[in-house]
Specification:
3-stranded antiparallel sheet, single chain, binds iron/sulfur cluster, alpha+beta, 4Fe-4S ferredoxin-type domain-containing protein, 4Fe4S_Fe_S_CS, 4Fe4S_Fe-S-bd, about 70 residues, about 15% helix, globular, 2 helices, two-stranded antiparallel ribbon
C-alpha cells in the first residue's frame, strides 16, 4: 500500500511530478493551495508503484511517499 502526500505549503505547481510519473498517475487539479498554486492530484492511488520518481523530481520536496507504513521521502 502506497500513500502519497503533497504538502500544499511547499508545492509551486511546476508539474514535474505530473510529467515524470512513469504511470501517468498525477495531474494538476483544480484546488489551490494557501499560496495560490494549483495542486497536483493522484488519479489512481491503487496503481501507484511507490517508485518515488515524483518525489525525487519535485524541486520543492513537497511529496512524501509512505510504503507499507514507512515514510520514505
Ligand atoms: S511513486 Fe511513482 S508511480 Fe507513484 S505517483 Fe509517484 S512517480 Fe507515479
Ligand atoms: S513537482 Fe512538486 S512543486 Fe512541482 S507540481 Fe509536483 S508537487 Fe508541486
Amino acid at each position: 500500500m502506497v500513500k502519497l502526500e503533497i504538502h500544499p505549503m511547499l508545492c509551486k505547481s511546476c508539474g514535474y511530478c505530473v510529467k515524470f510519473c512513469p504511470k501517468s498517475l498525477l495531474e494538476i487539479g483544480t484546488l489551490r493551495s494557501p499560496r495560490g498554486f494549483l495542486l497536483p492530484v493522484m488519479k489512481d492511488s491503487a496503481s501507484c508503484i511507490g517508485c518515488m520518481t515524483c518525489a525525487v523530481a519535485c524541486p520543492e520536496a513537497a511529496i512524501s511517499i509512505t510504503v507499507g507504513g514507512e515514510e520514505n521521502g
